[in-house]
Design brief:
The chain is an alpha+beta fold and 194 residues long. It contains 6 helices and 7 strands; from the N terminus they run E-H-H-H-E-E-H-E-H-E-H-E-E.
């Protein structure tokens, strides 16, 4: 792999997120499905909703770059920022502990097969820790067989296992809830991963 960097999505990086999401699989959702409690909306409406978050100073996720080209995304933040998780039969709260949630990965087709999703997970762990999170939660897919990348936006359980997450619930055979405790020892902000 060439130079790889990860940066939080800010106003200055908005154009990079738009470029990364200019693909059929993410163009309509614009990573708003789990943030909304009701109607999923249209692509244009979801894009505006995401831009309002970014313009308001909220970091909705991280962008991964290879040689300066945005190729990967991970959506994360405090669980309460994802309204749909509260009612999900699979991803509803396990307990009342405060957690940050990882709800989506996306790697552009030209970036697949390079381990970018795993590197984005590592960056998400570092970023959540730097923001004071003490518990990080994911909702990966555990099918026991290879799946098409477009159906793996939650990430693979094996990837979370390798990153030190442990299963805390399983309400559907292929969909565990996993968690990792974050210690405050490494509270440096993530800007680069080389």
């Amino acid at each position: 792999m060439n130079r790889f960097e990860v940066h939080p999505v800010t106003k200055e990086r908005w154009g990079d997120l738009v470029a990364l999401f200019d693909r059929p699989i993410v163009r309509t959702c614009f990573c708003q499905y789990y943030r909304k409690g009701g109607d999923t909306g249209t692509g244009a409406r979801n894009r505006r909703a995401m831009q309002r978050l970014v313009d308001g100073g909220q970091v909705p996720g991280l962008i991964g770059y290879v040689d300066g080209v945005p190729l990967a995304w991970v959506s994360l933040g405090p669980r309460e920022g994802y309204d749909r998780l509260q009612r999900s039969p699979i991803m509803k709260p396990v307990d009342d502990r405060p957690v940050w949630s990882i709800v989506c990965f996306f790697v552009a087709p030209e970036g697949r097969g390079r381990g970018l999703a795993a590197r984005m997970l590592d960056a998400a762990i570092a970023y959540a820790r730097s923001q004071g999170a003490r518990m990080l939660e994911g909702y990966p897919v555990d099918r026991g067989q290879a799946s098409h990348p477009d159906s793996m936006f939650f990430g693979a359980k094996s990837m979370f296992d390798q990153a030190g997450f442990r299963e805390v619930a399983r309400r559907k055979p292929t969909r565990p809830v996993v968690r990792r405790t974050l210690r405050p020892r490494d509270r440096k902000p993530v800007t680069k991963a080389t």
